[in-house]
Amino acid sequence: MPTYISGQRCSTYDSSCPKKTFIKKYESSTFPIKYPSSGISFDSYYSHQDMNEYMHYLAVRFPERVCIRTVGQSFENRDIKLIHISNGVRSANKNIIFIDAGIHAREWIAPATALYIIYQLVENFEANQELLDEFDWIVLPLVNPDGYEYSRGKFSYWRKTRSTVKSNPCRGTDANRNFAFHWDEKFASTDPCSDIFKGKQPFSEPESRIVAQILLELKGRGKFYISLHSFGNYILFPWGWTKKLPPTYGDLQYVASVGAEAIRSATGSTYVYGSAASCLYPVSGSSFDYAYAVAEFPISCVIELPGKGYRFHPIPKIIKECVEEAWIGIKAMAIAVIKKYGRT
To answer: Alpha helices, DSSP H only, in 16-101?
Structure first.
């Protein structure tokens, strides 16, 4: 049974106790194929270009089940791509699970986890076919490629985008404080030099606009949204902007509990789950609140992935352990969502 943390509305499992389709067309691969056999490994962190190359490799190898879409460009004009994964039966009516990662540049394990999800759904399709019978999955593995590459090459703790603010030397906006839902509130900063700078206006960042565009295009079909972050063992859901509970709190709590218990049962790792404002800290202008309230995803959450003692950058030899642990919880939650919402 879950153990409730005193004074908070959060829980933890303690180990001791078609006509119109979202994807408009296939993209042909213009990248050299680097992964001729197994596709990818999980013993290092990949560059933005490598991630795109891997997705294009999958589109070439599995064209009946995979297609790629360029959804826009970052501030520094890097292509931001998503992958749409199906079981090969294309239908404009299938519901969608949408996952994004890497909105915060320094959280390297998040894009690595997104790649592992893609690997499981595509290259390990036979073991995960039930996840694709009634739902398609859309994964955007790197929301903030500019910040990610700056973090990899210049300053590993860089968090924000790399946009510029007029008359200020500080660069970047926290794209997860930049969504047009309770944006101009106290749980973000007005200081461009702050790590949680909310931007000069909602959706000032191309990266946040891209995520919002996808969410809104999926309105009605999108049933489960996950934004991958790090670090800490949390499964968090709305609200971020207030400690008041959302109207479907029971459904959100149930799905999160399924993920936490699956991880605990398989690995012994304990995950706290509950509303973000109560269990971690308040946040305004977030993607997960926007997905729930504006794009009407009935289940929306943030997973704060494990650091395993290495904070935002688990060392290469434990990347696989981290992403496998996350997949256990995500798969269990996805099954719960599929059972509840089924096909329209």
So the answer is: 48-61
Q: Is 283 left (phi over 0), alpha (psi -120 to 50) or beta?
A: beta
The residue among 61, 101, 112 whose CA lies nearest residue 85 is: 61
The reply to whether the predicted model has a pTM over 0.85 is yes
Please give the Cα distance from 136 to 42 (Å, whole number).
Answer: 24
Render the burial of 317-344: b for 16+ CB within 10 Å, e for the rest: ebbeebbebbbbbbbbbbbbbbeebeee
Tokens of 125: 């399709």
| Contact (CB, 8 A) for 325 and 332 | no
Query: Using CA atoms, how far apart are residues 45 and 245, in angstroms rounded to an integer?
Result: 37
Note whether 341 and 131 are within 8 A (CB).
no
Please report the domains of the chain, with CATH numbers, ordered by start residue: 35-341 (3.40.630.10)
pLDDT at 37: 39
Mode of pairing for the β-strands spanning 222-230 and 299-305? parallel
Mean pLDDT of 257-276: 97
Rounded Cα gap, residues 53 and 38, in angstroms: 14
Q: pLDDT tens digit string along 285-294? A: 999 999 999 9
Bond into 231 cis (ω within 30)? yes
Q: What is the pLDDT of residues 124-144, one digit of tens each?
A: 999 999 999 999 999 999 999
Instruction: Report the pLDDT averaged over residues 77-96.
Output: 92
How many Å apart are CA 15 and CA 269, to the nearest integer? 7
Instruction: Identify the pLDDT of residue 13.
Output: 33
Burial class (CB in 10 A: 0-12, 13-18, 19+), 101: buried
Upstream peptide bond of 239 is cis (omega within 30 degrees of 0): yes
Q: How far is CA 213 from the centre of its chain?
A: 15
Q: Rounded to 5 degrees, what are φ and ψ at 84? A: -110, 120
Closest Cα partner for 226 from 311, 107, 103? 103
Active site residues: 304
The count of residues in the chain is 344
Q: How far apart are CA 216 and CA 134, in angstroms?
A: 21
